[in-house]
TrEMBL record:
Protein name: DNA-directed DNA polymerase
EC code(s) of this entry: 2.7.7.7
InterPro entries: DnaQ (IPR006054), GIY-YIG_endonuc (IPR000305), GIY-YIG_endonuc_sf (IPR035901), GIY-YIG_UvrC_Cho (IPR047296), Ribonucl_H (IPR013520), RNaseH-like_sf (IPR012337), RNaseH_sf (IPR036397)
Keywords in alphabetical order: Exonuclease, Hydrolase, Nuclease, Nucleotidyltransferase, Transferase
Gene Ontology terms: biological process: DNA replication proofreading; nucleotide-excision repair
Organism: Zhongshania antarctica
Length: 491
């Protein structure tokens, strides 16, 4: 069971259910794992009378406990079995709570990693009607002469673990145990050799289900690291755990770099629909915030979809956001951060009040002196939105952006006015751009220029991606490309 880890299977019998006021009257532990198999048990004098209900449930009477060691007498021995081991118990919160409270009285801070066999049974066998220890024993055919005695219940837990490992298989069993323990584990159908075979290069990857269905589609700087992160972050009933449970295979494609991975991923997500991946609501037209100066000189905001058609000619100042909801949220966040008046920005909805300092002072009778001038207010608004202002296309023509992964794979991305028109390999001998898939006709530079004259929708995700790499990669206008062709561009 998860190889090198040690597990301490524990059961306690107590005088009641409250760790703060009740006492341990029997403890049993069996330590397994790492070539270790040890066990210890003892009745413990709780220094109080055992309630009749508990006596009837466990069969432990007051007379049986008289003269037995106290917890103070056994705590050193019990600690030697538990220290450094994963605590395994049925309804483990109960046992962990009692052990923590009792050890704390002797200066020991007991906070182990915990595996609850009740949760494990519910996870592995959700169709079983009951998951109590007695019901599990009946289900798996394990019979004991006594119940609600510490070592008998430890033996029952061990029997269940052995049964589940044999029934579900080592891979599935270890995977589910690992999830419950928040340990990094691979999906049952993925071996470490499969992970080792994934390159540490930029690219895109697909996580597939048992029938070959697409579960997840992603891009990465390092394919191996990113794929592995899906499984390392899988815990309990998280989305990552649900994905990991269904993954049966991984496919990947090496690309020239992070920009290439982002562009290819964007294109793939428009045509493929991963089953366990939430897709962005606004994959095309962004929400643009226009800065409108009224006749009074006041600067106000207006939200609209997409970029203004004539923005290249007018040079209009606009803020750009991925969608309308994002724009509205950020407007209020920026207004609060920079003390901008939402009323003056004309973005208040009916019934909403502005909480800026100027409105507060005006409400208190401070008068017009509390209100900033139109020019000062406009300057503060533009400064607040500086990080979201649309940057005009910095070239007079299309460009080829060269990207190389450092391992012999390079691409040229054809881009104009922040629109992506394709990614290619450059064949210097033929003077042509070759599409990676080889499905399209090769392009010379004149044909590439003509393609960029075609109407292409502005995509927010491409704009943000290209802006992020504007100063990190070589951007070459098509008119200059032929003069600098060298080995660095050759496929």
């Amino acid at each position: 069971m998860l190889g090198h880890h040690r597990f301490a299977l524990v059961d306690l019998e107590t005088t009641g259910g409250q760790a703060s006021q009740d006492h341990i009257m029997e403890a049993a532990v069996r330590v397994i794992g790492g070539d270790v198999d040890l066990e210890w048990q003892s009745l413990i004098d709780p220094l109080c009378s055992v309630p009749s209900f508990i006596q009837g449930l466990t069969g432990i009477s007051n007379s049986m406990l008289r003269g037995k060691p106290r917890f103070s007498d056994v705590q050193e021995t019990l600690w030697s079995y538990l220290d450094g081991a994963i605590l395994v118990a049925h309804n483990a919160r109960f046992d962990a709570g009692f052990l923590r409270a009792n050890f704390a009285r002797y200066g020991r801070d007991y906070r182990p990693r915990v595996l609850c066999t009740l949760k494990l049974a519910r996870t592995l066998y959700p169709d079983w009607p009951k998951h109590g220890l007695e019901a599990i024993c009946a289900r798996i055919g394990f019979y004991s002469e006594v119940h609600h005695r510490a070592m008998a219940d430890v033996d029952a837990m061990k029997a269940f673990l052995d049964y589940a490992r044999a029934d579900k298989g080592e891979a599935v069993f270890n995977f589910e145990v690992g999830l419950l323990l928040d340990l990094p584990v691979l999906p049952p159908s993925i071996r470490q050799a499969d992970i080792d075979a994934i390159p540490c290069e930029p690219g895109i990857y697909r996580l597939l289900g048992e029938a070959g269905e697409l579960l997840y589609l992603g891009g990465a700087r390092s394919l191996q690291e990113q794929v592995l992160s899906h499984f390392e972050n899988a815990t309990g009933d998280s989305k990552a755990a649900k994905l990991a449970r269904r993954v049966d295979a991984v496919q990947w494609q090496i690309l020239a770099g992070e920009l290439s991975a982002g562009l290819h991923l964007s294109a793939a997500l428009r045509h493929e629909k991963p089953l366990l991946q939430r897709r962005a609501k606004a994959l095309g037209k962004p929400c643009c915030v226009r800065f409108i100066t009224e006749d009074s000189g006041e600067l106000q905001l207006r939200l609209r979809s997409g970029l203004p058609a004539n923005i290249a000619q007018t040079g209009e100042l606009v803020g750009l956001f991925r969608e309308r909801k994002h724009a509205k949220t950020r407007i209020r966040e920026l207004a609060k951060e920079h003390q901008l008046c939402l009323r003056r920005l004309a973005v208040l909805v009916e019934g909403e009040l502005c909480e800026c300092g100027a409105c507060a002072l005006t409400a208190e009778g401070a008068g017009e002196s509390a209100v900033a001038s139109a020019a000062d207010f406009a300057a503060r608004v533009k400064a607040a939105f500086a990080g979201y202002l649309y940057t005009p296309w910095p070239f007079a023509e299309p460009v080829l952006i060269h990207e190389d992964n450092g391992a012999g794979f390079s691409e040229c991305h054809l881009v104009y006015d922040w629109r992506h028109f394709g990614s290619f390999r450059w064949n210097a001998e033929r003077g042509q751009l070759l599409e990676l898939s080889g499905s399209a006709e090769p392009l010379d530079l004149a044909a590439a220029r003509r393609i960029c004259e075609q109407t292409q929708e502005f995509r927010y995700e491409h704009y943000r991606l290209l802006r992020a790499f504007q100063h990190n990669l070589k951007w070459q206008p098509l008119s200059q490309f032929t003069a600098t062709i060298g080995d660095e561009y050759t496929a």
